[in-house]
Amino acid sequence: MSAFATNRIFLVGLMGSGKTTIGQLLAKRLGWQFLDADHELERRTGVSVATIFEIEGEASFRAREAALIDELTTRDQIVLGTGGGAVLNAASRNALHARGTTFYLHSSAETSYERVRRNRDRPLLLVADPMARLKHLYDVRHKLYEETAHYVVESYRDRPSAVVAEILRILGTVKTDRAGSRPEIAVTGEAST
Predict the structure, then answer these.
(1) Backbone angle region of 180, left / alpha / beta, with phi > 0 → left and psi within -120 to 50 → alpha
(2) 68: domain CATH number?
(3) Which of 13, 19, 97, 183 has an alpha carbon 20 to 30 Å from 148's alpha carbon atom?
(4) Are 83 and 37 contacting, i.e. CB atoms less than 8 angstroms apart?
């Protein structure tokens, strides 16, 4: 049994697993900042992820993403929603695992597809058969998500508040001192390696 405290929570999972929605709700409950890595990259570059993919290619996007993950995982009192492919980079996987508590928001390819099928800002799904592509991405990334995460939480399609409650249950006690400072999370339990 290990006990550790963290003031950084990272969310990994397939596109459409709910990282942004759940991350925003979780950050609000904790009184912390929420950052979506893809949105932050778009803010900094002034262009969409799809545009970066189109102009620079996936390899360049992944290099930018890895540098951003390296930076953001050092911030305190943050809930960070990563891009679905962030785990493809070994240094990003290591940073996410070592610098905070990481949750894999697991959802099937089918559930994720239902969530993102109308979204045209997903460059990896701009193919003839997006469902087949999503299944392939799941097959390639699932083990990497598990390797990166300390905990796996099922991401229910229409119950983000239940997922947040489960994450808070796993995290344990949320304490706020009388001065009203931000919460400190004390976590006790087994963490996977």
Answers:
(1) left
(2) 3.40.50.300
(3) 183
(4) yes
Per-residue pLDDT, 165: 92
The confidence score (pLDDT) of residue 100 equals: 94
- Give the domain extent around 61: 2-189
Helices (H), 16-129: 19-30, 37-45, 49-56, 58-72, 90-98, 109-116
Q: Which residue has the higher pLDDT, 193 or 73?
A: 73
More confident residue, 186 or 80: 80
Count of domains for the chain: 1
The two structure tokens encoding residue 143: 């083990």
Least confident of 45-49, 102-106, 118-122, 133-137: 118-122
Q: What is the CA radius of gyration of the chain?
A: 16
Q: Count each helix (H run) and each strand (E run) in the chain, helices first.
A: 8, 8
Cα dihedral sign, 110-155-38-47: positive
pTM of the model: 0.81
